[in-house]
Design goal:
By secondary structure, the protein is an alpha+beta fold. About 50% of the residues lie in helices and about 15% in strands. An 8-stranded mixed sheet has the order 23-22-21-20-26-25-24-27, with helices on one face. It has a 7-stranded mixed sheet with strand order 1-2-16-3-12-6-7, with helices on both faces. α10 runs antiparallel to α11, α14 crosses α15 and α14 packs parallel to α21. The longest helix has about 200 residues.
């Protein structure tokens, strides 16, 4: 092992080779050296050996460190012959061919049971998974594809004597890839599960793994749910021989399987349903039957212990009675007739086992379909496909217990061998012939005769078995054998004791109930027992119907044939024909793909490592036809390729063909090979292909190509880089030119500007200098001119002045004469004036003195008058000023215009006292006048009345002051408005001046009676107050003489009537009213208006009143105010009425 891990990366198959890595190179080629080579390599842990592109794999029965990720990397993308033989090299070749050349691949793994096929298939899959694309989605697909294995192995594998993990079904898996080589999904096909194993296992073998895994791995809870016990011995279907397998932990496998199911995509309830079915199958095996005798002496079977049956029915949701009946009766339907027959105990057991087998195999098919559903590719785009075929290997039980299953399995292997022959040996030879290559024919055994013996549609063994099965009448296994003997007796690969050619009549190794077939891999003795039954694969319809009725969705879906609505009287196809059909499909499928072979060899029968049994290996080498294989490879050419493809691939190795060859592809290849100086014996020209004898030639071609490709890549790189650098350079150059141009222009511009400015400066200096020179010249000239002028001027000046002086002298002389004259005149005048002034002054002085003298005289005379007049005038003036001031002040201090306002400014001067008072009076009168002037006529009348009242009562009657503030209303009763007095009003006719309620004093007791008092302009009336209209008395005013009343504050008054008048008859009236002042005033005015005479008004505290006959004195006395506030009248005696008036 140690030296293994130190393996270096080899560059050729030939390096460090143990034995020969490729059998094609074996020298000398004999069976012995062949096996010797295998053994040698095997002993050095080299389990893989090539025959050309075929891989021989010898089962090491122990794990080797050659499947590590490092190894995967080592073999990845390497040429097939580059490294030492490995299954990874084959897988890599297949994958790359698929990915790069778009060729669908199939990997055909063949070999005996236990030779390592399943392992090999897994290695291929895991390698492909490791090297193909990456990413979350891709990884999930990979994981699902890989995890489908543990699930299928649990249900489809079992421990056999040959193999602890023997596949009991054939499996073909298509892995699908997209154009990049990323896996998309897969499709699994399964072939013929060995379902008889469910009910019976050969000695030393086990039932399918899942049963043991379930019982040891499921939780207590789950077991309880499934009504199972954790004890293998409790179940009839589990052989106790080898309940446990050394080195296998069923419990942990169970967890692995459950986990795998989850990854693949099983729902929890689906997993549960599956396990329920597995449990149900186990329990089915425990149902036992007992005979029950019937009247017609036919034994009828009955379920012995119904408890198990009950539990199954509970588990699967089946009506117990239905299932129970299905185990006791069988309904046969023939042409619309239903015949029910009873089952005996043996038939019941048969039915039970059939059900268990069917249940399990249908469950297995369902599992495969369910997995397919999960792993199928999610796209409809074109897919590349790699198929991996792992089918059960050739199987021979030396004990002769080979039955229908072995027959089928071996048939399948026979077919595979044929396809191998077809695709390698025959195809190869035929191709040589087709291509016109010289070819020495190699003898090889073509097994198509054997295939024909089995599958021929008219007289093949399978056809005859089917015929027997369908034939009416009694059909048994022996009738089938008889038939075989008749038809196949002459076939060179068929042997039977019964056959007419008595060649085997005495062959005791061939029992009577057997037949023997000479398979390509050896002779196999088949027992005909059970052939018919197994081919029929019958399940009584009652049972499938019972299953269909189950209240369990999975089991119901497994038995669609139990649906009474879909009853099909036609028999289902037999197991044999089904298998034949599916094998045919498989073969067709494989033929469309590029085959890759792995031929597995079992080194010993003990499943032991390090043991290499020559005879066993030799047998396998023979029947696998490996020797022929090598011979064909050696005789022929290791490699061939159409000219076009070859030229396309290697044209870069030769100048003439690179990059284009303009002629025929074949000529191109010829030129190419010649140019490469490959020895002529190494290759051969076919019609359309070039054949290369030695793999190494090809390898060297590949190597050169690889190197050349590197060179080409460098060339491309070089050209590209050159181009890139050039373009870059050109770009740089043109940029530089542009930059330089711009810069030069800029520099020139700058220089030019500088020169220009210097020139300007120089110019300006020169010009300045020139200008100054001219200026100087001009200035000089100008000064010269000026000097001339000045000199001229001076000269003229001098001349002029001289002249002027002469003139002036002359003038001065003239003026001096004048001045002197004037001065003389002046002196004369001034002397004269002085004399005149003296004279005048003297005159005025005389006048002034005179006037002064006169004034003095006058003043002396008038002095005595002056004082007397001035004093009077000053006095008058002063008085006037004081009065004026008085009036002005008074004007500013005037009181308000209210007549009631009695204020008046204080008198300022005593001497104005009377004036001040007079003014005050005048002002008062004036304000009063102003106030009156505002009055309306109505108001005037009221005031007039009030004035009258004042005249009559003021200072005379004590009641008066209180009446001043009260307005006189006149009609207090509102006679003309109040409906109560309507009648009275109509009686009066005249305008009512006054109307009010008064008290008429009764003379008899001094008490008052209420009366309405009415006054008009010429009469007054008294009316009854209660009735409101009854008039008591009417007195014309003309007949009224006087009125009497007290001076007190009472309301008593007497009205006296003229004697002798009609009114007088009733006498005077003594009345009392609060409104006495108003009544009397109005009476007085009315009387005055009517008669122009004043009614006499007497105000006294004692007066007489003339009642009807008597005169009564009315006396007023003041009383204490405590005795009441009202005046009261009391009769004192016949002649005296006393009125008490509260004192004020
Ligand atoms: N390459 C291998 N390396 C290690 N052990 C192997 C290898 N191939 C097969 N075996 C062992 O051999 C046993 C049988 O192999 P298997 O592939 O199941 O055989 P087959 O499918 O041909 O019946 C496996 O269980 C394993 O223990
Ligand atoms: Mg297998």
């Amino acid at each position: 092992m140690g030296d293994m891990s130190k393996m270096e990366v080899k560059t050729s198959l030939l390096d460090n080779m143990i034995g020969v890595g490729d059998m094609v190179l074996l020298e000398p080629l004999t069976e012995k050296s062949f096996i010797e080579n295998l053994r040698k390599r095997f002993n050095h842990n080299e389990i893989y050996t090539y025959i050309g592109s075929v891989v021989i794999s010898i089962n090491p029965y122990r794990s080797l460190p050659i499947y590590t990720p490092d190894k995967v990397e080592e073999y990845r993308n390497r040429n097939f012959y580059e490294l030492s033989p490995h299954i990874y090299a084959l897988a890599d070749e297949a994958y790359r061919s698929l990915r790069d050349q778009d060729k669908d691949q199939c990997i055909l793994i063949t070999g005996e049971s236990g030779a390592g096929k399943t392992e090999a298939s897994k290695l291929v899959m895991s390698y492909v998974a490791a090297v193909c694309g990456k990413g979350a989605e891709v990884n999930q697909v990979k994981e699902q594809l890989l995890q489908s294995n543990p699930v299928l192995e649990a249900f489809g594998n079992a421990k056999t004597v040959r193999n602890d993990n023997s596949s009991r079904f054939g499996k073909y898996m298509d892995i699908e890839f997209d154009f990049k080589g990323d896996p998309l999904g897969g499709v699994i096909s399964n072939y013929l599960l060995e379902k008889s194993r469910v009910v019976k296992q050969p000695r030393g073998e086990r039932n399918f793994h899942i049963f043991y895994q379930l019982l040891s791995g499921a939780s207590e809870d789950m077991l309880k749910k499934l009504k199972l016990e954790r004890d293998f011995s409790k179940y009839n279907y589990l052989s106790l021989d080898s309940a446990t397998v050394t080195g296998v932990d069923d419990a942990s496998c169970f967890r692995t399987v459950k986990n795998a199911m989850q990854i693949v995509g099983f729902m929890d309830d689906e997993t549960q349903s599956v396990l329920e079915l597995v449990g149900a199958v186990l329990k089915l095996g425990n149902i036992e039957f007992k005979p029950e005798s019937r009247v017609n002496e036919v034994d009828e079977s009955r379920v012995k212990d119904k408890n198990e049956l009950k539990e199954i029915c509970e588990l699967l949701g089946i009506d117990q009675s239905v299932l129970e009946r299905a185990f006791s009766f069988r309904t046969v339907e023939a042409k619309q007739e239903k015949v029910s027959t009873t089952l005996n105990v043996a038939q019941a057991y048969y039915a039970r086992d059939a059900l268990a087998k069917n249940l399990y195999s249908r469950l297995f098919t369902w599992l495969v379909n369910r997995i397919n559903e999960s792993i199928k590719a999610q796209t409809k785009k074109r897919k590349k496909v790699m198929g991996v075929l792992d089918i059960y290997g050739f199987e021979i039980f030396e004990s002769g217990e080979n039955s229908f299953e072995q027959f089928i399995i071996n048939y399948c292997n026979e077919k595979l061998q044929q396809i191998f022959i077809e695709l390698t040996l025959k195809e190869e030879q035929e191709e040589y012939i087709r291509e016109g290559i010289e070819w020495t024919h190699i003898e090889y055994f073509n097994n198509s005769v054997i295939c024909d013996l089995i599958e021929n549609n008219t007289n093949g063994i399978m056809a005859m078995l089917d015929e027997e099965c369908l034939r009416p009448g009694t059909v048994t296994d022996s009738t089938f054998l008889e038939k075989l003997n008749q038809i196949c007796a002459d076939h060179q690969h068929f042997e039977s004791r019964m056959s007419k050619s008595s060649k085997f009549l005495n062959d005791h190794s061939l029992p009577h109930n057997c037949f023997r077939i000479q398979h390509y891999a050896g002779k196999v003795l088949y027992h005909v027992d059970g052939f018919v039954d197994k081919n029929n694969d019958l399940l009584y319809r009652d049972l499938s119907q019972a299953m269909w009725k189950a209240n369990h969705s999975l089991i119901k879906s497994l038995f669609p044939d139990g649906n009474p609505a879909k009853i099909n009287l036609k028999r289902p196809p037999t197991a044999g024909s089904q298998f034949k059909a599916s094998v045919a499909t498989l073969m067709k499928n494989l033929q469309t793909k590029n085959p890759n072979y792995i031929r597995c060899i079992k080194p010993n029968d003990q499943k032991a490592s390090h043991i290499f049994t020559d005879s066993l290996v030799c047998h396998q080498v023979r029947y696998l036809g490996l020797m022929e294989n090598v011979r064909v490879r050696r005789a022929g050419y290791a490699f061939r390729q159409p000219y076009e493809a070859c030229l396309e691939r290697y044209k870069m190795l030769c100048k003439q063909t690179w990059p284009h060859w303009r002629g025929q592809a074949r000529d191109g290849v010829e030129v190419l090979l010649k140019d490469l100086q490959i020895p002529a014996e190494e290759y051969s020209y076919g019609r359309s292909k070039i054949f290369i004898r030695n793999p190494r030639t090809l390898f060297s071609l590949e190597e050169q190509r690889k190197r050349r490709l590197h060179g080409l890549a460098t060339l491309i790189q070089k050209i590209f880089r050159g181009w890139k650098a050039r373009t870059h350079f050109l770009l740089m150059k043109s940029s530089q030119v542009t930059v330089a141009a711009w810069y030069r222009r800029y520099a020139q511009q700058k220089k030019y500007k500088k020169t220009k400015s210097s020139a300007v400066i120089v110019q300006s200096f020169i010009r300045g200098w020139k200008a100054r020179k001219i200026l100087r010249e001009l200035k000089y000239q100008k000064r010269c001119k000026e000097a001339v002028t000045t000199i001229g001027a001076y000269w003229h000046g001098t001349q002029a002045r001289r002249e002027l002086r002469c003139l002036k002298e002359e003038a001065r002389n003239r003026r001096a004469v004048t001045v002197i004259w004037a001065s003389w005149q002046g002196t004369k005048a001034r002397r004269e004036l002085r004399c005149l002034k003296e004279e005048a002054r003297n005159r005025r002085a005389v006048t002034v003195i005179w006037a002064s003298w006169q004034g003095t005289k006058v003043r002396r005379e008038y002095r005595k008058f002056f004082r007397a007049h001035a004093g009077k005038r000053i006095y008058e003036f002063t008085i006037q000023r004081i009065i004026q001031k008085y009036f002005l002040e008074l004007k500013n201090k005037m009181p308000s215009m209210s007549p009631c306002d009695k204020t008046w400014p204080a008198r300022p001067y005593l001497f104005l006292d009377s004036t001040h008072k007079e003014l005050r009076r005048i002002f008062h009168l004036w304000t009063c006048k102003k106030y009156r002037g505002q009055f309306t006529d109505q108001k005037k009348a009221i005031y007039k009345e009030k004035l009258e009242a004042s005249e009559i009562f003021k200072d005379k009657k004590a009641l008066y002051p209180s009446s001043v503030g009260q307005p006189f209303q006149g009609d207090y009763l509102e006679i003309n408005k109040n409906p109560r007095y309507q009648k009275l009003n109509s009686l009066v006719e005249e305008k009512i001046i006054f109307a009010d309620i008064v008290n008429k004093i009764n003379r008899a007791n001094g008490k008052g009676a209420q009366r309405i008092f009415l006054l008009t302009k010429n009469k007054f009336m008294l009316a009854d107050q209660k009735s409101g209209h009854q008039v008591k008395s009417i007195v014309p005013l003309a007949e009224l003489t006087s009125v009497s009343m007290s001076a007190q504050s009472d309301g008593f008054f007497a009205l006296r009537v003229k004697e002798g008048t009609t009114a007088a008859a009733k006498g005077d009236f003594l009345l009392n009213s609060e409104r006495i002042i108003e009544i009397i005033t109005k009476l007085h005015r009315a009387g005055l208006d009517l008669t122009k005479e004043k009614i006499q008004i007497e105000i006294t505290d004692e007066f007489l009143v003339q009642f009807k006959q008597d005169k009564v004195c009315v006396k007023f006395i003041q009383s204490n105010p405590k005795n009441g506030t009202m005046a009261s009248c009391k009769r004192k005696n016949n002649r005296l009425l006393e009125v008490t008036v509260p004192s004020p």
